[in-house]
Design brief:
With 336 residues, this protein is an alpha/beta fold. It contains 11 helices and 14 strands. Strands 2, 3, 4, 5, 7, 8, 11, 12, 13 and 14 form a 10-stranded mixed β-sheet that branches. Strands 1-6 form a two-stranded parallel sheet. Strands 9-10 form a two-stranded antiparallel ribbon. Helix 3 runs parallel beside helix 8 (258-267).
Amino acid sequence: MMNAVMKGFWVAFVLTVCVPALSAKQAQAKLPVKVLVLTMFEVDKNTGDSAGEFQHWYEAHFAKAKSYDVKGFMNPLYLNDRGVAGCLTGMGKAQAASTLTAILSDGRFDFSHMYILVAGCAGISPARGTVGDIVWADALVDYELGHAWTESDVTKSMKGTFARDPLYDRSGYIPLNKELVQWAYKLTKDCPLADDSQAAAYRANYGPAEAKEKPSVRKGVSVTGDNYWHGKGSSVHADAVCASYRTESPYMAAQMEDNAFGLVALNFGLLDRFLVCRVAVDFDRPHDGQSVVESLKADSGGFLIGMKNGFIVGSKVVEAIVSGWNIYAEQTPKTK
């Protein structure tokens, strides 16, 4: 009888003391991630050839980092010894949302204090900027959510070709943390950016003064569309969508993923630590005397300098967050 009592006592002791200790040890064993850098595509290899969105990041941060296979994600997730993670997510809203959801659902990592940086390409209106520019997004707008119709179906009683549906507002319009965006902008606005003669010559084809400027760092709305649109008419539509949400400014960048990433960040409680750094690699419309198709096929000279500029600006923010982690782990950066 005494043996049975003692046995029961020791079982209870083990369950009471050892199991919680094991659970705590398992929790502590999670790999902390300070910054997650999301890029969408690479031209070919991650290193040693012409750079796409990921190559400069890979060479600087992940060439010697450990890689992890994540269930539900087609590419490796890299994590270096400073707590910086990065990957190639794939292009478009569906791929972006599914990839980030898969990563944030992986129990091996501690994302509780993490910042997310989207670093990729965009188009820009020649009336608002130029190729090589950086845009820090202060809000995200979905180009497609709502009700739309073609011009051929418009009646006299209809206005425009778009009507916003409030049912989509949660993912259609995502304002970002303004103080964090302003901090990133102020930190990087004087970064020396790359430029070249080919880009300068291409800019000269456009009339607006903004199109002819040298690359600089800007802020504004980033418009997301699965449809890789191009042309003045599509730009007018983008402005109409932004106006329907009463954004503080017209759109500055046009791309294919930001609302998807932003919605996942919102769902996981990380939107307050979410940043979008988009580099303009082309104008979103043709210049005078050029067709839309010709414009799409043209080499503006903006891609290679854009890849450099996106990394120059984005990496400065990553470095600041990691270097100031004793503060930024608990509170998001703010301008003084």
